[in-house]
Batch of 2 targets.
Target 1
Amino acid sequence: MEWIVLALLGLVAAILGSIMGLGGGIIIVPALMILSEYSSILNGITPQIAVGTSLLIMIFTGLSSTLAYVKQKKVDIQSGLIFFIGSGPGALFGVWLNKDINVDVFLIAFGIFIVFVSFVLMVRKHIKPLQLKAKGIQRSYVNETGQTMHYGFQPIVAVIISFFVGMFSGLFGIGGGSLMVPAMILLFAFPPHLAVATSMFLVFLSATVSSISHISLGNVDWFYALALIPGAWVGGQLGAAINRRMTSDTVVLMLRIFLIIIGVRLIYQGVTGL
């Protein structure tokens, strides 16, 4: 029964994570902690093991989703690699912080910030992106309605922002997309579908770096991982297929709802320690 539950958990988390570019860790980490209280096989899961195992699973979710989104021509690979220059070291720093930091107060503050970001997305059309100088990266993209949209960013600004995104990924095992997708949409004017797809590419790269560090620290339970990986791989493909049939506004609405859920979960975790 535990294998079935874990397989379904990996599937659902990957589908939702792939649709919104979140990676799925925000679902897997608390789910493993909750399941450990009710299962004799899954007992003894520490927060570090839950985070480490979640990040390993996100490698497969991220790779599966990225391959599907590449076929749809929605992944901005060059931009993703630039973001990774910051998120890679940030992820390693987050793993280091995860070892022994007391993060209760920080969790509450971070949760409130995530909820705030959700409400900012609601009025995103009234917010002007960061001014782009001549030497910045500039791109164009044709959305689902045939409209050509322009976006871009300053590499140094993108690297700094993605460093903090990677740090949160390594620290909490949430994949980083909960901040990276809103940042790309709000600050750099990325079209929502492109932001989600590029975020999943970044999730794959960042999770690879973070999980290697967690494996070296012994923070991965391979029993749970083997049960979660098949669902994560299939879910990544399904999520990308579902995302393709959604409008930009629907993608942003789902993202906003899940950001609120993520924020409330982090606040609850900070208050209760669970």
Note: The longest helix spans residues 47-71.
Target 2
Amino acid sequence: MSWLQLDGKIAVITGAAGGIGQSLARAFAAEGARVALLDRRTDGLDDLATELGGGAFALACDMSDAGDIVRAATRLEAMGGADILINNAAILRPGPLDSVSAVDWSAMLQINLTGYLLAAQAFGRAMLARGEGALVHVASIAGTEPQPASGAYSTSKAATLMLSRQLAQEWGPRGVRSNCISPGLVRTPLSEAFYADAEVKSRREQMVPLRRIATPDDMADVALFLASPKAAYVTGQDIVVDGGLSQALMGLVPRPGY
């Protein structure tokens, strides 16, 4: 039996085709969970499900489409319903606030925030009926430290932190926990272009007290704990997984002798 006691649990992972999503899927499957892989991009998703085995399966689901989310949740309810939801799907449409379009702003909020609520409602229904379940939302240090020229990204992640806390308060008495993880700098296929430049990579590493850029596996390890019974008394929390980056601000301020 898995030390984390996840054997046989149904874990729903949104944005499963992305770098962090794939690491989450592999981590939960390795712990014995049956993984439902959700993404609007289905390229390779069936192959990932085959690789994972253990009853893993892929579902095409656009997290900006309430109907898609409900249909996916209904399918899982026929199997007993989700035990775990990892809200991971997100988009970034960068741009300064003086010119960001209403379309881009709304699109980011729809997926990065409203999609998290809709998924919690749809997949959480079985958890609430059962009186047990765990939600883990992937936020960002950009939710507490404003990230310039990123459109609605920081705003959406800040709101995700509050959404999780509100879910924890409202659903805790009904046996369902809700927590966030906030990644810092993570090397994924989408961010690889930054790290292809050796100078940029080195400068970024020097900003992080642990002197390395996170991998998607670093995020998955924390999500495993939060979703497991080992975190049974943890709810409403934000676990910052950034190698100490968010604590390094004052160390960047020039001082005599340093």
Note: Residues 10-241 form a domain with the Rossmann fold fold (CATH 3.40.50.720).
